[in-house]
Design goal:
8% strand; elongated; cell inner membrane; alpha/beta; two-stranded antiparallel sheet; six-stranded mixed beta sheet; Rossmann fold; membrane
Length: 670
């Protein structure tokens, strides 16, 4: 017999919810040592075998992090709506044991809902290292719920936690009552009286509390006939004082609990984290340190490790391509089919896979920076600059995510409360170069700027950031005028990165790249081969092909930028599907085989590009239309085709304009 159980995983941001989710379900969702990694609910399944030999199927729902059930941003709304409206069997409240007092505010709000709650005290190892002692038995007695100490990253305590979830689902629960002032209780009673005639999914007291806290969205849980009376209540002069009193009462109650359950053996001293932050988050040193760190990342990715491995991959893929070609010749495969397989499919796919070492190195470096806690500091040090541009400091987090992929980065804007700030962040995010552009940058930088790859690619990332911030400033002064909101964030402690975690996260990203190479890039390479070897009359040479004709129509637009040839034009068109396809198209068009070595590529393109025009091509590639996946994300997150087409149009104009300026000015000096 199998029973089914739905568990909602709720807690503050950046306390290990996704780590626990992965540990319980065997999933490999992205984990980061900063807030805002999870911006949508994720579901996973696992089984528990009870002592009675009954199998329980548990559906675990990982919710975005939130500090309270009063939702202000889209990701917080997702968490609140699921807990309140979807009625999970049990709420698994994950709490950071090393920051118990701060975490208990959400816990009290969950308990006031009257739903079954199990608390998992995570990071017990960090709490112990800080000299903190928590009396879990006393805490259980005070809150009236099961409390299980765990260390999610090491899978400690998970069996006990699962058993507690199953047990809690079988026990009736009652709403927890925080002691409020008599005047607040009187106002609560009046509000509850307006609600008690209705059939409500959550306790009337909880709805009344949310209304008195100024949460107008709580009205959605009440039938419309009493909305006018409740709205009047929300607009009384005393409502602000009532709201503050409720909050104060909760924190006083939390302080009382902490005094009874927690003790500390820690001595006052400047922690390792504080010593580093003295320099890393310094008002003047912070940004130069960030620039130096990113240059080191690029040097590691290209000059130090990436390029030597890329040359090795290039040689290996070249031998594989020769073996495949010889095998097809030996099998008497038709010339056109052999050309399709070798010059089309394999040539295009291998041309991109050659740059796998560079991409893997970049992912390794960025994952280490995330895991240590440094990326959270970047968001902090950029806050002042963001506010001067009119943006919320939270905008920097999606920007940093964009260095990996713009799709999850655009989804990451859900953490931004102000809708105008969120729209601005969505529309500028594609300027922050994703990893898919990396093969293009690497290919051209190695061919035209040997030995200076790190400097060239660092400059491209810098240009992307600069243009993105400049456009954000213009948008905030024109399309999306609003006051910048204060940015409050918690800086996690530094810790040594986990080799297992880095390997898992990098493998997931590399696997995604390999899947894309075997599907999207493979199909695109085959299609490109056909349009480059056929026209409307049948087979033809490449210069008279359908692809060449399409490229020649577009090429004059790029002539003022220094690359007005049909090969470059066609590659840019193909790159809208996925930026890696630009490399695939170049490999096919110029007949490079599997080789994308700097010398071979430079010799093939020497007649079409100069170093200056090659750099301008990279600038255009950096700034022009994002891939279809990113365009789809813009459409979904703005809920508008209008803004998607706006993004396409204005990015094309900016890409052309910036590349034109660089080419025109560059010709004056080179």
């Amino acid at each position: 017999m199998t029973n089914h159980l739905t568990v909602a995983l709720a807690g503050n941001p950046n306390i290990g919810k996704t780590t626990l989710f992965n540990a319980l379900t065997g999933s490999h969702y992205t984990v980061g040592n900063w807030a805002g990694v999870t911006v949508e609910k994720k579901e996973g399944h696992f089984y528990y075998q009870s002592a009675e030999h009954t199998s329980v199927s548990i559906n675990l729902v990982d919710l975005p992090g939130t500090y309270s059930l009063s939702a202000f941003s889209l990701d917080e709304s997702i968490a609140r709506d699921y807990i309140v409206k979807e009625n999970p069997d049990v709420i698994l409240n994950l709490v950071d044991a090393s920051n118990l007092e701060r975490n208990l505010y959400l816990t009290l709000q969950l308990l006031e809902l009257g739903k079954p709650v199990v608390m998992a005290l995570n990071m017990m190892d960090l709490a112990t290292a800080k000299g903190l002692k928590i009396n879990t038995e006393m805490l259980t007695s005070l809150l009236g719920i099961p409390i299980i100490p765990i260390v999610a990253s090491k899978k400690v305590g998970l069996k006990e936690l699962t058993a507690a979830l199953v047990t809690a689902s079988k026990v009736d629960s009652t709403a927890y009552h925080v002691p409020y002032l008599a005047s607040i209780e009187a106002t609560l009673s009046e509000t509850i009286h307006l609600l008690e005639d209705h059939s409500l999914k959550v306790p009337a007291r909880w709805i009344a509390l949310k209304l008195l806290e100024g949460d107008e969205r709580a009205l959605d849980l009440v039938p419309g006939e009493h909305h006018d009376e409740l709205q009047t209540l929300l607009q009384t002069e005393e409502i602000e004082a009532i709201r503050e009193s409720i909050t104060d009462s909760k924190y006083e109650h939390i302080s009382s609990i902490i005094s009874k359950v927690m003790s500390s053996d820690a001595h006052e001293q400047t922690s390792f984290t504080n010593k580093i932050d003295h320099f890393v988050t310094h008002r003047f040193l912070g940004i130069p340190i960030f620039a130096a760190v990113m240059f080191a990342v690029f040097y590691f990715t290209f000059n130090l490790v990436g390029n030597p491995l890329t040359d090795l991959f290039d040689t290996v893929f070249g031998h594989i391509l020769d073996l495949c070609n010889n095998g097809l010749v030996a099998l008497n495969v038709a010339d056109w089919l052999r050309a399709l397989i070798i010059d089309g499919a394999l040539n295009g796919v291998f041309g991109v896979l050659t740059f796998l070492p560079n991409i893997a190195c970049l992912f390794i470096a960025l994952t280490i920076l995330e895991d240590t806690g440094y990326m959270a500091r970047v968001a902090f040090i950029m806050d002042e600059l963001m506010r001067k541009l009119g943006l919320n400091g939270k905008s920097i987090i999606p920007m940093l995510l964009g260095f990996g992929c713009n799709v999850p980065a655009i989804m990451g804007t859900r953490t931004i409360e102000d809708e105008k700030d969120r729209m601005t962040s969505i529309l500028i995010n594609p300027f922050f170069s994703c990893s898919a552009r990396l093969p293009i940058f690497t290919l051209f930088a190695s061919a035209f700027f040997p030995g200076k790859e790190a400097i060239v690619i660092f400059s491209l990332y810098f240009i992307g950031i600069l243009i993105g911030l400049l456009v954000a400033f213009i948008f905030k002064k024109t399309l999306f005028k609003s006051d910048s909101m204060p940015f409050i964030m918690e800086l996690p402690p530094y810790h040594l990165p986990s080799i297992k975690h880095i390997a898992t996260q990098v493998w997931e990203k590399v696997r995604g790249f390999l899947i894309k190479a075997g599907t999207t890039i493979f199909v695109a390479s085959v299609i490109l081969w056909f349009i480059l070897n056929f026209n409307f009359t049948g087979p033809t040479d490449m210069s008279n092909s359908l692809g060449a004709s399409i490229g020649r129509i577009i090429a004059p637009v790029f002539a003022p930028l220094g690359f007005g040839n049909w090969q470059a034009a066609l590659s840019l068109i193909a790159g809208v599907v996925g930026k890696e396809i630009v490399v695939s198209n170049m490999a096919i068009v110029y007949g490079l085989g599997a080789s994308t070595s700097a010398t071979v590529f430079h010799d093939a393109l020497a007649s079409s590009f100069s170093p200056l025009s090659a750099y301008c091509f990279l600038i255009f590639t950096l700034l022009y239309v994002p891939c279809v996946g990113t365009l789809g994300a813009i459409k979904r997150e703005t809920n508008s085709l209008k803004w998607m087409w706006f993004a396409i149009s204005y990015q094309l104009l900016i890409a052309w304009g910036v590349a034109f300026i660089f080419y025109t000015v560059g010709n004056l000096f080179f």
